[in-house]
Amino acid sequence: MPQVCIYPKQAAQLTGNQYTAGKRLLQRIRTKLGKPAGSYVSVGEFCQFTGLPEAEVSRALNRS
Question: 0.85 cut: is pTM over it?
Answer without folding.
Answer: yes
